[in-house]
Amino acid sequence: MSNTLLKNQAVGSTVWLKRNGTPTSFVVVHQGNPDPALYDSSCDGSWLMAQQALTTRSFHTTAAIGSSNYGASALHTWLQNEFFTQLDQTAKTLVRRVRIPWCEGPDQCIDGIIHTGSSGLETTAFLPSLLELGIDEGMSAPADGAKLAYFEAGKDASACKKRAALLGSTPVSYWTRSLFSMSDSEMYTISSDGSSAAQNCSWDKGGVRPLLILSGSAMVQPDGTLVLDQPPAAPASITLPEKLSGGSPAQIQWAAAPDPEGDLKEYQLERSTNGGSNFQQVYHGTALQYTDTLPSGCTQVQYRVRAVDQSGAASSYTVSPQRTVHSNSAPVIASQTPNGTDLGEKTAAFTLQYTVTDPDDDPVTVEECLDETRLRQFQAVLGAANTLTVTDGQLAALVKGSTHSLILTATDGRAAVPPYRFTFRKGEPPYVPTEASIQLAAPVDTGKRTQLLRLKVEGNIPADAQFTVEAANNARDPAPAWETLTEQARSGQIYRFQNHTAQSPWALDLRIRAIRGAPEHSGWISGFQGTYLVED
Fold this sequence. Notes:
By secondary structure, this protein is mostly beta strands. It has 6 helices and 42 strands. Strands 19, 21, 22, 24, 25 and 26 form a 6-stranded mixed sheet that branches. A 5-stranded antiparallel sheet has the order 2-3-4-15-8.
């Protein structure tokens, strides 16, 4: 059996990293970025979690208020320093430095303040969050992650079994990085049975199951051992025609290159002109040949090719001899409508004017195309006006609202001018957006002032839709104080009400409205769910 890429390993499979020289088992718990809205792009890799607890430690070394700050904890420091140094050099090379979502303290948790994306906590080895392990504790824990593919949501027997861990042969609870929002000195742990519980940060000890995010380009041997990828061998040869002309096609060929792991991805062909050392890529792909059009005006050309595997490891270059290029100038297309112009919407036949010339006065063949369809081909009268016409019949055959290209090409048999392009859209009538709205049948009597609300709207809301979510905690007043919480409802974050007055008994009401944008962007609201907290 051959080695495989780590990024192709199945979630739930086991790989081995050496720690203090001893193989240690890790489970592949996720592949890729769990949620780009929460996680920095650095988290787009292979997620490995220690299969069992590696040790037991206190979360922090102080009992001071605020010791539930994971980023300032002794355990976080231990993971970055002592634990990381225990890994062998192969693992250290593959582990990514990433930024993960985290919450600094209980007040920030209640207010829904989570450091996400590029503002996340910078780390190499880190503890999992409750949400990453499939547990949602609502307002008592921060929204500091998204469920990893290996774990199951909820606390039933199957989900808990996936989370439970041993220390040696003994069931053990282990720390998460999710704080318990009702205390300044407690963090959530995963109990020995796989459920969740809160433990004191200083005098309680818990197991440690580090998470690591590795480059998916690592290789996994059949026995699960991680190894560094080996680059392919360089192609044995590269050949090109003896006689080359500027502006004309030339076929470049090269030999196949073997790869130790058998995971060759592509060849990269580069070109240098006029004796320069600056090579530019002209082709990448799996073929062993490429037809390149040489730039007009160049006098010399040289090519080089290399092989690249799936992990990005590249061979050395195989370099061709330098060849003399015989000159030929390509034809020239000119128009008062610049190349690349967007002509806008078209609902009736239209024309475009252009001329064709050739610096060498060679005969020139012109082709006019609508997308992939040839409209006409002819030998141009150099310098004379030409008219490209799109008829009513041709326009009628196009789909309303679709975008199309008009393409002009010209060649003298040895050199071709780069395509001259225009774009246009088939006109369509205006559309009428539709809308959906939801409001409670009657306000919910809360008895006291609603202070916090977490609401999640379920469905598919297109990005161009006009979407609003509003709530009022004095809904039985003649003029309720409606407050907007659209962004919080999109992400499931907690909203804190600003209104503190009510003429009538306190009551909560919600209303949701979405107005569709473009007609091709369909959407729906299937429902919503949420929780609220009233003042003591």
